[in-house]
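Continuing from the previous page of notes. For each protein in this section, the sequence appears first, followed by its structure tokens. Read the first protein now.
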Amino acid sequence: MDIKKTICSSNTPNFFSHEMVITKKSLNENQLKYIYQKQLISDLDSKHKEWSKFVGN
């Protein structure tokens, strides 16, 4: 009990919310979407670099 009181009484903010619940399935889907979007941005960046070579000529 003393440990819990110490943790709760500290001034650090909570890294979770008691009001919000995310299912594991939803979390995994969002992570896959994020990875896909990150890959698209990376591909677009490499395409822009490639296109800039042609524009500069």
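Done with the first. The second protein uses the same format. Note its length before scrolling.
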Amino acid sequence: MSGLPRWLRRAQPFRPGPLPDGLSPAERVFFRTSLTWLILLVALGVVSQVAQHWGLGRVESHFSLSTAGFDLITNSGFLGIFLCYGRLRTEWRDQAWVVALGLLFEAILWSLRPPNWNLADRLLTMGLGLGSAAALGLAMQAVLGSPQVRKRARGYLILAVFMMLFPHVTLWAHFAVVDWNPQVYDLFAYQVDGLAGFQPSFAVGALLERSPLLLSLAMLVYNELPLLLFLALFLSLDHPERTYNQVISSFAGMGLAGFLLYNLYPASGLVILFPENFPQGPAPPWDGPPHLLELPGTRNCMPSLHMSWILCLTFAVFRMGRRVRMAALVAVCFTVLSTLYLGHYWIDLVAAFPLALSFQALTANRLSWKSPARRQALTGGLGMLGVFLVSLRWFHPWVVACPGLTLGAQAGIILTALFLEHRLARAALAGPQPPQT
């Protein structure tokens, strides 16, 4: 506790004991919340299938064992599922057969990889087999396990299925935005990003290209976001007195809201805009007035959901000790580098701060809606995000006419969001309040 702020050290910790079924109150609320999101996700999956049948947002991808696991972010989620089975604390025989089955699955996938892949490429795509075996183990424990293990296994199985479905439903939403908005505002965003006298994405690209180790670390943190989500969830379940909201609700809610916001300011990113120059540079000059373009690629820039998600996880674990806090800040820094390296605009990252703040307030279940800190965080987050996006889209000439004011406003948005989140956490963690649904 010595690494926590003084105001939090003075707070009386909330440490409820387990309920008769072996679950803690935090676990019970978390599993119920996960089930709610899973039902919503299944409904969206049905909607996506119907929409694709009518030609809206069609996803041209098909599953194949030879390419399964090439998406490192998906692999990361399956590694998180594997960790879920370990948290059941079953007998070593149960753990051993899941590990053995997972390694068998990994060996099968290993044999299907392209023959020219090196050892590093093959190791990076591991995870799908271990996670699949763990999901099967969770399903068996949910039916055949002891009463206490059975309850917990069902909860983690819900989370596992949610993580398996989430990428597919969100992928459809990406392409639906493309259908709704064939034109993008990339040149407008490029002009705003250059108000500082340089292009942040090209500067970061040149930096990381000169340091392979730094680039590898940045991309590793970026691709391991789902695994970081699982770790944050585990910490919040183990230390409910230091977390003031439902992490899974904040994470999933921002994912759904992001696709709605992508319709307000659709952009594809610098990789699509300048494929020959990015990321090494130099940044191409643009002297003419910006105009709308019809570009391929998903609309996943404004705001940056990846940055929003890592902020959500950081806020969730920030009060859990100095080492956890420092690790979270390192993850944020690497996410900034990797997100810019992959073609996002700096203003995408700025917009992530009020978006994350808004969902911290929406899911702050330890505070009533009458709390000034919660209302101020919500109205402040939504207000800053709305003004920022509206200004960029409909008042672009004013934004670029005052570079100093625009850059100052961006810094003000980040600092204000951090300040309001600190006040929200301080109010929520000031006393022993049990979590609510």
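What the second structure shows: Residues 147-180 form the longest helix (34 residues). Strands lie at 183-184, 293-294. We return to this in next week's lecture.
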